[in-house]
Design a protein that fits this description.
Elements: H1 5-49, H2 52-55, H3 64-76, E1 85-89, E2 95-98, H4 111-118, E3 123-129, E4 135-144, E5 150-159, H5 161-211, H6 226-275, H7 280-312, E6 320-322, H8 324-334, H9 336-341, E7 345-349, E8 357-359, H10 361-377, E9 384-392, E10 395-402, H11 432-442, E11 446-452, E12 456-464, H12 466-475, H13 487-490, H14 496-503
């Protein structure tokens, strides 16, 4: 089976590092055990060789024959015959006695004896193989008289075969422990990798289903860890995508209905007028309907274009110093006839004066029109829509309050989201409030919606006045925005009716 993905990376990284560490550790411990064992044998040989100074007292005054007789007694009483072989060497370099009682092979290498002859203190050691192939360690002590002549020597020889077997046994044990550790790491890590791979595969499978449009797909959360958090995130993403898809479908349906209604009226009256069998009054009525519905279509298309600009970040504002009171009054005046026709009360509490603001005159009027239009749409006959404005803490505060059906509490947090409609029985695209909120945000202001079901809705708009905006910029270390306004723009244009209202 081909190993790939996370499992392959684990094998090359984690398991590879574990194996490398274990190999280095086992090799290091093997060398340490080998050196420790050989050093222990060498120390034992040296300890026995140092006893010669006690055995051969005044050997410097002795002859070679005296040394040989004493060496015979030393070999006879040697207590470590089972652990090592003892050899007595005469002054001529020949082995004359061994602790084993066998005649030694004169062809055996004695490098330690040659080293002892060269050493000032008469000590030599050697590790190697005999002619028989046996591996041994040997230590020789050479004794000299006052004249510096060699009177004899004693050689200690230990076989290393048992030591090597012990070292190999320890190395085998260490290797077995290393393999056991690798096995345990493999088993535990395989379980761990599978515990990751299984939910990852489930997440991948569920994500593919979501990508194909199955927004009801969910991942079962098994652990409260990073994988569990990822499962929660994917599930939340599926919910949001499902809601967005539903809102988009509702939006398309709503916009289609909004477009079809005026198109149907325009087409019907156009066919009626084309027949030519109508009087002047009917003709004028039909033209009025066509003009109104065309303006309605134009408004819908413009709203969609604005929404597209908002989504792509291409919405720009033509900022200027404006009298927001005049624009609010104009928006209220636009709906006065409609309110009377629908038997609703549109009240406007107009203040004497408000500070100017820096804003886009057309966009702010669009916001006021959109909010007042919504308030009238959701208010029943004999209901009231109240519009008021005041200056509060350096901000221009505009409130539109209606006594309509209100918004249920579960829908209130979402009313400013694009495509969202809390009430599908009333016409509208579901993007007007989202667009208004974006425009106000671009003016450094806020748009807040408060509502209670069956009691009404209050929309509060706050926009910083020119003085507040300049003060904020100074606190932020920026120079106040200086704009050379044309004389015609110094005071916003007002129509005659607006001027009359302001004069009153």
């Amino acid at each position: 089976m081909r190993i790939k993905g996370i499992t392959r990376r684990w094998l090359f990284n984690v398991l590879g590092i574990v194996v490398l560490v274990l190999v280095v550790l086992i090799v290091s411990l093997s060398f340490a055990v080998h050196n420790y064992t050989y050093n222990g044998i060498l120390q034992a040989l040296n300890a026995n060789s140092r006893e010669l100074t006690n055995v051969f007292i005044d050997y410097k005054n002795k002859t070679s024959a005296d040394f040989t007789s004493v060496a015979f007694a030393y070999v006879e009483n040697f207590t470590s015959k089972e652990q090592m072989e003892l050899m007595v060497i005469n002054s001529e370099g020949r082995v004359v006695l061994t602790s084993t009682g066998f005649t030694p092979d004169e062809n055996q290498p004695m490098n330690d004896y040659q080293a002892a002859l060269q050493d000032e203190e008469g000590y030599g050691s050697w590790k190697g193989k005999l002619t028989s192939g046996e591996k041994v360690m040997a230590v020789t002590r050479v004794l000299r008289n006052h004249d510096g002549m060699v009177v004899g020597g004693v050689r200690y020889v230990v076989s290393l075969e048992n030591a090597d077997r012990q070292v190999l046994t320890i190395v085998a044990i260490l290797t077995g422990i290393g393999l056991l550790i690798i096995l345990i790491v493999c088993v535990t890590s395989t379980y761990f990798v599978r515990s990751i791979l299984k939910p990852v595969r489930e997440i991948n499978s569920t994500a593919q289903r979501i990508a194909q449009g199955d927004f009801d797909a969910r991942i079962q959360k098994r652990h409260n860890d990073e994988i569990g958090e990822l499962c929660d995130t994917v599930n939340e993403m599926a919910v949001e995508l499902g809601n967005s898809q539903q809102m988009k479908n509702d939006f398309i349906s709503s916009v289609s209905h909004e477009l079809r209604t005026p198109l149907t009226a325009i087409k019907g009256w156009a066919e009626t007028m084309q027949s030519g069998e109508i009087d002047r009054g009917t003709f004028d009525k039909g033209m009025g309907v066509i003009i109104r519905e065309s303006e309605r279509l134009s408004g819908i298309v413009e709203e969609l274009l604005d929404f597209s600009r908002m989504q792509s970040g291409r919405m720009t504002l033509m900022m200027d110093r404006i009298d927001i009171l005049a624009e609010l009054g104009e928006a209220v005046y636009m709906f006065s006839d409609r309110a009377k026709a629908e038997h609703k009360f549109l009240l406007y509490e107009e203040p004497a004066m408000l500070s100017p603001v820096l804003g886009d005159i057309n966009r702010l009027r669009q916001v006021f029109v959109n909010i007042i239009d919504n308030a009238l749409k959701y208010t029943d006959e004999q209901g009231t829509v109240s519009v008021s404005a005041c200056e509060e803490d350096g901000f221009i505060k505009v409130q539109i309050v209606d006594t309509g059906c209100g918004i249920p509490s579960e829908h209130l947090p979402n009313v400013k989201k694009k495509f969202y409609k809390a009430n599908h029985s009333v016409r509208g695209s579901g993007i007007g409030l989202a667009l208004a909120d974006e425009i106000i945000a671009l003016h450094n202001g806020t748009l807040e919606v408060e509502s209670k079901e069956d009691l009404g809705t209050t929309v509060t708009i706050r926009i910083p006045a020119m003085q507040q905006l300049e003060h904020t910029e100074q606190e932020d270390g920026r120079a106040p925005q200086e704009q050379e306004l044309p004389e015609a723009a110094a005071e916003p244009p007002q129509d005659k009716e607006a001027e009359e209202r302001n004069s009153n």
